[in-house]
Amino acid sequence: MDKNVPFADLNLQYLNLKNEIDNAISLVIKKSAFIRGPFVEEFESNFAKLVERKHCISCANGTDALFIAMKALDIKNDDEVIVPAHSWISTSETVSMAGGKVVFCDTEKDSYNIDPNLIEEKITSKTVGIIPVHLFGQPSDMDEIVSIANKHKLWIIEDCAQAHLATYKGKQVGSFGHISTFSFYPGKNLGAMGDAGALVTDNNDIALKVTKIARHGGLKKGQHDIEGINSRMDGLQAAILSVKLKHLKNWTEIRSDLASNYLHLLKDVKSINSPKVKKQRTHVWHLFVIRHEKRNNLSTFLKENNIGHVINYPIALPFLEAYKKFKHKPADFSNAFYNQNRIISIPLFPEMTQAQQLYVISTLKKFEE
Ligand SMILES: *Cc1c(COP(=O)(O)O)cnc(C)c1O
């Protein structure tokens, strides 16, 4: 039995695709197609097709994608944007970066996503948009969120950084927002070998504006219609991502099988609260997050037993030093606070062997004894 389980194994993922990836990299170098060019265009077109959107505009990373999206939606000074209280900081820091004001909304205890029942009480005359995050790979309650946004004339940016190919009522995430953003950070379900990100939309005007913002405000050399930024995916990342993209569906199926095994085999372990999938959606298991009352002891025990694990995320956004000025209290976001002290992500990656998974499960059971 393999008594050493990493949290993920990106080197093994590379080795499994070594020939294809090495060839792709050589070709980019041979053509000196480092910035934009055919490899980037090919990836944009492949990704748009895969997620069933009309436009895909690549950029430097998933954080830039969120920033560019808000700029393209004309965010103005002090416009308020509602974001979930538990996410990676990109979701909230980009609101401030773009000139807006962050308004946190508590998450649901069991889905970890923004609680749609709490959104409306956060809406003021200054609110312009909502950023649902499909956290850990499970889609948010998009029907409820879309209907609130329509009622109050707000935009939606879906943060799909953890949810490539996840579906809600048969439709892929990324199809509900005015713009949706993706990250291809190496550890994401579709990961580059460096930083990369993208925005997708069906709206032609928004697509054009996004493209301009990401490219110094213009599409032609020497022509700058507006001020923008420099945020591009490089040719090497695009070529690598085009190779990996062909495997994403298969990897997602394997993730789902591994998650089913965990759910089945941990069912009787009383101390472990396993993740719950809400109705009418597919979870793509970017992370398999369990809750445990003795989370910190469990973390030590897993470490002693050479099992990789991560806490995503140990401090919910409102309680971070960066947001101290808001003076938020645990009771303001009680579910996010409850979860931050109990969650722990255990290994789940497509290259994981059955023996590795059984070792993780038996170790978890041993901790309970
Ligand atoms: C990874 C991630 C991002 C940002 O992506 P980067 O490519 O690392 O900038 C944004 N939101 C969420 C929820 C993420 O997990």
Structure, described:
Helices cover 37% and strands 13% of the residues. With 369 residues, it is of the alpha/beta class. The strands form 3 sheets. Strands 1-9-8-5-4-2-3 form a 7-stranded mixed β-sheet, with helices on both faces. It is globular and about 70 Å long. It starts with 9 loop residues before the first helix and ends with a helix. The mean pLDDT is 97. Residues 61-63, 87-88, 90-91, 133, 159, 161-162, 183, 185, 195, 197 line the site of pyridoxal-5'-phosphate. Pyridoxal-5'-phosphate is lined by residues 61-63, 87-88, 90-91, 133, 159, 161-162, 183, 185, 195, 197.
> What's the alpha carbon Rg, rounded to whole Å?
21 Å
Outline, from the CA principal axes?
A: globular
Q: What percent strand?
A: 5-15%
Q: What's the total count of β strands?
A: 12
| Average residue-wise pLDDT | 97
The run of helices and strands is: HHHEHEHEEHEEEEEHHHEEHHEH
Distinct ligands, ions and cofactors found in the model: pyridoxal-5'-phosphate
Placed side by side, the strands forming the largest sheet appear as: 1-9-8-5-4-2-3
| N-C termini distance | 21 Å
Low-confidence stretches: none
Outline the biggest β-sheet: 7 strands, mixed
Helix content: 25-40%
Counted by DSSP, the helix tally is 12
Backbone structural class: alpha/beta
